[in-house]
Design a protein that fits this description.
Strand content: under 5%
Order of helices and strands: HHHHHEHHEH
Organism: Labilithrix luteola
Structural class: mainly alpha
CATH class of the largest domain: Mainly Alpha
Distance between the termini: 37 Å
GO molecular function: DNA binding
Protein name: HTH cro/C1-type domain-containing protein
CATH topology of the largest domain: 434 Repressor (Amino-terminal Domain)
CATH superfamily of the largest domain: lambda repressor-like DNA-binding domains
Strand order of the largest sheet: 1-2
Largest sheet: 2 strands, antiparallel
CATH architecture of the largest domain: Orthogonal Bundle
Helix content: 55-70%
Radius of gyration: 16 Å
Length: 135
């Protein structure tokens, strides 16, 4: 998983805004946007440490190619899908769309992500479905 992907996942998980992370990590305005866009790939260890600290993830996870999850509170994607409280009336095709999207975002190599991130992302994906398509 790329640095850009890791930063994006950690940012969503944190619930913070890019500007907040920039301020906490002592980065110039717009720096987080450039990282997520892939324009900044080779950050020094000190910047990675400051960003990881501001995002609340480990330096090792953010700064390496490790597939280890970002925090200890991680859950297999499949477990969250099974326990998710699906809204009544969703069409099976819509459920499949949401499940496919979440699995795709998690990536083939990443089988676990923070539970809070997975739940919030599932809620966002379900909320984005057209209301008129519900049974």
């Amino acid at each position: 998983m790329s640095l850009a992907s890791r930063v994006e996942i950690a940012l969503r998980q944190s619930g913070k805004k890019k500007i907040d992370i920039e301020q906490e990590a002592g980065l110039p305005k717009g720096y987080m946007t450039r990282i997520i866009a892939g324009e900044r790939r080779n950050l020094g260890p000190e910047k990675i440490r400051r960003i990881a600290e501001a995002l609340g993830v480990s330096y090792e996870w953010l700064g390496t190619e490790s597939d280890e999850p970002p925090t200890a509170d991680t859950t297999p994607v499949e477990a969250v899908l099974e326990e998710f409280d699906w809204p009544p009336g969703l069409l099976p095709a819509d459920v499949e769309i949401v499940v496919k999207q979440l699995r795709q975002e998690a990536g083939a190599a990443t089988t676990q992500l923070p539970r809070s991130y997975l739940r919030r992302r599932l809620q966002d994906l379900v909320a984005a479905l057209p209301v008129n398509r519900r049974a």
